[in-house]
TrEMBL record:
Top-level taxon: Eukaryota
Gene3D superfamilies: D-Amino Acid Oxidase, subunit A, domain 2, NAD(P)-binding Rossmann-like Domain
The organism's taxonomic lineage, starting at the top: Eukaryota, Metazoa, Ecdysozoa, Nematoda, Chromadorea
Protein name stated in the entry: FAD dependent oxidoreductase domain-containing protein
InterPro entries: D-amino_acid_oxidase_CS, DAO, FAD-dep_OxRdtase
Protein's GO biological process: D-amino acid catabolic process
Domain FAD dependent oxidoreductase: residue ranges: 22-348
A cellular component annotation (GO) from this entry: cytoplasm
Signal peptide coordinates: 1-19
Cofactor annotation: FAD
Pfam families to which the protein is assigned, alphabetical: DAO
One example GO MF annotation: FAD binding
Family: Belongs to the DAMOX/DASOX family.
Keywords linked to the UniProt accession: FAD, Flavoprotein, Oxidoreductase, Signal
Length: 389
């Protein structure tokens, strides 16, 4: 063998020896984003994704994925800002082909406190965040006691599960040789015993059980329902009080929802549908002639204390040490926090520096960096109200 050929063989052997074997449990938005985030850090890592259901039957498949943060604690704001940046990049480079859509809309509420929280949580990350003036609110929406309502407007992204995740999966399979195996896994330790160097737990609501360390006690479902409609003329999202909403995606409009904590029923019942539809018609009567073309029920994977993004080491039955990375429990914001938490989990999986996350995990407040700081928009004034009187 020539010296050049043996040098090449030696080099290849080193690469083979060093390539890390990573197993990921879950092909929802969290598992798929984490696989991609790992590959973007190190394309030579071997990744196998395990999932126990077909993609069309999991939570992430049915979701419109509007960007909005419920709990604005510092780590979520970082995850959200990183996700927003990623979605903006996908929108620039691939547009709707990536499942990402740029969309504007309104949130109406009688609670000034809740609207203020939107500004705190993500108002400085999204585009065009403004408070509606009284005439703007009054001319668009027919509300009982409308003088009690205030509203915000912003522009952000949807990342529709049924398009965004397959788009990432295609990239993973075709460009990065990631393998997918349909198999039920009992716990992360099962894959540790199979000899993986790293096991990443993106099991959604099952994440606590898969962790096999008692975290299951912190997990609980929040039942939700979505109605898919043919109201293709609806181009803006519209929320009232964070539960009654429409979200337009690429070729449909979703109407929601209910938020039932600790209810794990996957039955799509007429009572829930009527409740959602009735509440929405009150907000936007123009929907009376709209057709419901599909319906979907899902359980938000909520966790006391928020998403668990954390690494640990355990020994397998052969006595070898392996790393476990948890990335589950994103509740009602998995698409909003997903890319940021995937980047964090990927760094933990590969042993990269995570100081920017570690610091925030212990903080209760975060000052936004100066370059993204904007002035809080003005609230509706008496002068605004006077215009329509
Ligand atoms: C009505 C509704 C509306 C929502 N709207 C939004 C929104 O607008 N914006 C937003 O950001 N979020 C929204 N969410 C929240 C979002 O849907 C979730 O946070 C997100 O889908 C969670 O993704 P996941 O990958 O963790 O879980 P899942 O999508 O549930 O995926 C879990 C994966 O783990 C696998 N798995 C589980 N157990 C095992 C096992 N034992 N063995 C092998 N594989 C296993 C499953 O097969 C699956 O592939 C909404 C949720 C609901 C219900």
């Amino acid at each position: 063998m020539s010296p050049l050929a043996s040098a090449f063989l030696f080099q290849s052997l080193i690469v083979c020896i060093q390539a890390l074997n990573v197993a990921i449990i879950g092909e929802g938005v969290i598992g798929t984003s984490t696989a991609l985030a790992i590959k973007r850090l190190d394309k030579d890592v071997n990744i196998t994704v395990y999932h126990d259901k077909d993609f069309k039957d999991i939570l992430s498949h049915g979701i419109a994925g509007l960007f909005r943060i419920d709990d604005g604690k510092p780590i979520n704001r970082l995850y959200g800002a990183q996700t927003f940046e990623r979605l903006a990049e996908l929108w620039r480079e691939f547009g709707g082909n990536s499942g990402v859509q740029l969309v504007s809309g309104h949130i109406l509420s009688q609670s000034q406190e809740k609207l203020d929280a939107q500004w705190e949580n993500y108002g400085q990350v999204v585009y065009n965040y403004v408070n509606l003036t009284y005439p703007q609110l009054h001319s668009q929406f027919k509300l009982e006691n409308d003088e009690l309502y205030k509203a915000i407007h912003y522009t952000a992204f949807t990342s529709e599960g049924a398009r965004y995740i397959p788009w990432m999966k295609k990239l993973l399979e075709e460009t990065y040789d990631v393998m997918y195996i349909k198999q039920h896994i009992d716990s992360v330790e099962e894959l540790g015993d199979d000899g993986y160097d790293v096991v990443v737990n993106c099991g959604g609501l099952a994440g606590g059980k898969l962790a096999a360390d008692g975290d299951e006690k912190k997990m609980y479902p929040i039942r939700g329902l979505l109605l898919k409609t043919n109201a293709s003329w609806q181009k803006h999202f519209l929320y009232r009080d964070f539960t009654t909403f429409t979200i337009p995606v690429i070729d449909a409009v979703y109407v929601g929802t209910i938020k039932e904590e600790h209810n794990d029923s996957l039955v799509i019942d007429e009572e829930s549908i009527e409740k959602i539809w009735g509440a929405y018609l009150e907000l936007q009567p123009a929907f009376k002639d709209v057709e419901i073309i599909d319906r979907f029920v899902g359980l938000r994977p909520a966790r006391v204390g928020g998403a668990r993004v954390k690494a640990e080491t355990r020994n397998n039955t052969n006595g070898n040490e392996y790393r476990i990375v948890h990335n589950y429990g994103h509740g009602g914001n998995g698409f909003t926090l997903g890319w940021g938490s995937a980047e964090h989990a990927a760094r933990l999986a590969l042993g990269f520096d995570t100081s920017q996350y570690d610091e925030l995990l212990n903080r209760v407040h975060i000052d936004m960096p100066k370059d993204v700081h904007k002035e809080k928009p003005k609230e509706m004034s008496d002068q605004d109200r006077a215009i329509v009187k």
